[in-house]
Amino acid sequence: MSKGTVLITGSSKGLGRALALKFSKNNYSLILHGRNKGDLESVKKEVCKSGVECIVLAGDLKENKTIVRLAELVEQKEIDILINNAAIMSKALVEKIEDSEVDEVINSNLMSVIKLTKRIYSYFLTKKSGMIIQINSTGGLDTSIEHGVYAASKYGLKGFTDALRIEARPRGIRVLGVYPGGMRTTFHNRVGGKKDSDKAMDVEEVAEIIFNLVGYDSVHVKDIVLERMYR
Ligand SMILES: NC(=O)c1ccc[n+]([C@@H]2O[C@H](COP(=O)([O-])OP(=O)(O)OC[C@H]3O[C@@H](n4cnc5c(N)ncnc54)[C@H](OP(=O)(O)O)[C@@H]3O)[C@@H](O)[C@H]2O)c1
Fold first, then answer.
1. Is residue 87 exposed (0-12), middle (13-18) or buried (19+ Cβ within 10 Å)?
2. What does the alpha-carbon distance between residue 218 and residue 6 come to, in Å, rounded to a whole number?
3. pLDDT digit string, tens, across residues 14-33
C-alpha cells in the first residue's frame, strides 16, 4: 500500500530524479514534473518498476497554467509532500547581467515556487497536515562573485521558507529547508559547466538523506545543510 503521494518539481533529471526513485522504492506514489517530456517518461518507467502510481505533468513553471494544472492535480491525488526542487543556475558579473536573465532566474527559482507553494499550502491547511521541502542551496546562505541573481533567488527562497514555517508549523504542516552544496548533475551546464565536478556530491546520497528526514511524528526538522566532503 502507498505510504503517501509526493509531487517533485524538476524530477526529469538530477536531484529531482534521484528523489523520485528513492521515494518510489519506499512505496510513495509520485507526481513527476519538469519540462522535458521524454526525460520525464523515462523516469516514470524506472519509478513504475516499484509498482507505485506515477503521473507525469510536463510544463514550464514560469507559466501560470503549469502552476494551476499542478495545483489541481495535487488536490485530485491528495498529495502529502511537496518538494520544490526545480531551478536554474545563473552566473555573471552584475554589470553584465541581461534583464531577460534576471526575469528568467527570479521567475524560475523564486516567483514560481512562491505561487505553487501558496496553492498547495492552502490545500494542506484543509487537511491540517502535509510537508513542504524546499531545495535551496548553500548559495542561499552565503554567496560569491558572479552569483548575484542566483543568490537573490535562493536568499529570497530562504526568506519565504522561514516565514512560511512560522505560519505553517502551529497548523500541523512541516516546512524543511534543504541547503546542498555542489552536486554531480547537469545543473551548471547552462553556465558552461563547473570546475571540480568530480568532487561534487552524489545525488543518490543526497536523496537518501532527504528521504530519511520524512515521516517523523514528534520531531520537526527545520533546516539541513549538506556540504560536499571534498573541496
Ligand atoms: N547541482 C548543484 O550543484 C546544486 C547545488 C546546490 C543546490 N542545487 C539545487 O538543487 C536543485 C536541483 O538541481 P539539479 O542539480 O538536480 O539540477 P538539474 O539537473 O539541472 O535539474 C533541474 C530540474 O529542474 C527543472 N526545471 C528547471 N527550470 C524549470 C522550469 N522553469 N519549469 C519546469 N521545470 C524546470 C528541469 O526540467 P527540464 O530539464 O525537464 O527542463 C530539471 O528537471 C535546484 O533547486 C538547485 O538550485 C543544485
1. buried
2. 21
3. 999 999 999 999 999 999 99
pTM exceeding 0.85: yes
Distance 218 CA to ligand 1 centre (A): 32
Atom of ligand 1 nearest to the CA of 203: 16
| CA 231–ligand 1 middle distance (angstroms) | 22
Residue 176's φ and ψ, nearest 5 degrees, are -110, 125
Under 8 Å between Cβ of 202 and 180: no
Domain extent listing, the chain:
4-226
Ligand 1 proximity of 85 Cβ (cutoff 6 Å):
yes
Taking the C-alpha atoms of residue 35 and residue 152, their distance in angstroms, rounded to an integer, is: 23
Torsion of CA 27, 33, 36, 40, to 10 degrees: 10
Residue 86 Cα, ligand 1 centroid: separation in angstroms? 4
Task: Tell me how far apart the alpha carbons of residues 200 and 151 are, in angstroms, rounded to a whole number.
Answer: 19
CATH of span 4-226: 3.40.50.720
